[in-house]
Amino acid sequence: MMTLFNGLFSGLLILIVLPVLVLFVQVLLACLPARSLPPARGLRPRVAVLVPAHNESSVIVATLNSILPQLAQGDRLLVVADNCSDDTTALARAAGAEVVERSNLQQRGKGYALDFGVRHLAGAAPDVLIIVDADCQVSEGFIERLAICCIDAGRPAQSLNLMLAPAGSGLKVQIAEFAWCVKNLVRPRGWARIGLPCQLMGTGMAFAWRDLPLIELASGHIVEDLKMGLDFCRSGKPPLFCPDARVTSYFPRSEEGLTTQRTRWEHGHLGVILGDTPKLFMESIGKRNGSLLAMTLDLLVPPLALLTLVLVAAFVLSWLVFLLAGMLAPALIASAGVALLGVTILLAWSRFGRQIIAFSALMYAPFYAVKKIPLYIGFLLKRQVEWVRSKRDDN
């Protein structure tokens, strides 16, 4: 009986450590010397930039001003004013964008707004559709690089999507910026080193218009980007990471905005992990789809704070079992997982995080993880399943 328990407990701990191993491999690959991307071969395609916006009057003009100078003749910039009760519509039109208004309080969520915008664009369809969130700024040359990358590869293209801590932010937001950098820069860069796809990140995404029928946009899913990327991969179009194009935004300053944002992202991500990962593994192995397997392994890596909490809990429990029952194997597996996570985070920080957070501030990360326990308890007791807009700093 004890032998069976030892085997089952050890197997469970191996499953817990697996995401750490995936993360370590991604970080290690990302630290390899950067290889030059081949120059874009094709001509710049005709582009439509779609900006879904729900009460974004405080940020919409700055976003449009970063996009408009990059548009060429024949391009379109469409703002979908989705259930807006402020002056987003008027400001977007005054800035020079084409605007359509959508009002449907029953079908709430970004996916519905995207579907509404795509149907509006269908009358004069572009070659490439680019999606940019209303609170984002795009880098110089963003549209051309992302659109050509998408057309050349014949696959969806995801730009580098970074969230930055506003000036004067506390340690909590600085750690969140570092964690975001690991998630959206380091991990996809590592997979891209060996030709593997990345997850879609919600903004800074480009799709060939002819590929849009492969997915269903109209959805209230709170992490519609993850779902879209997996659906494209299933259809033979795994998303490609295009770090030469960059889109940036800022974390909310308010605690309410941060909490709403984190709850939506992390509850949605955890819901997909628990609900979809087993069948994604079976499908990728059954169909011998290496790209889908790589995306599933990437999906398996939870937020760093949760991964830290789970590993520490497993470490404590396994050594307690060792003291009570003498089972050494589980304790060694958990200890290896904790050590590997520590090495992985230090490696990621040394290569990519020095400009974001000081090493002394990084030591605060375990306390940051502890403070997020109520968020994860909320997932177990009252999971968020509907889209909720994050509160901006000034509205």
Automatic annotation (TrEMBL):
GO molecular function, one term: glycosyltransferase activity
Keywords, ordered alphabetically: Glycosyltransferase, Transferase
Keyword Phosphoprotein: no
UniProt key word Signal: no
Family: Belongs to the glycosyltransferase 2 family.
Matching PANTHER family: POLY-BETA-1,6-N-ACETYL-D-GLUCOSAMINE SYNTHASE
Protein name: Glycosyltransferase, catalytic subunit of cellulose synthase and poly-beta-1,6-N-acetylglucosamine synthase
Organism the protein comes from: Pseudomonas moorei
Lineage: Bacteria, Pseudomonadati, Pseudomonadota, Gammaproteobacteria, Pseudomonadales
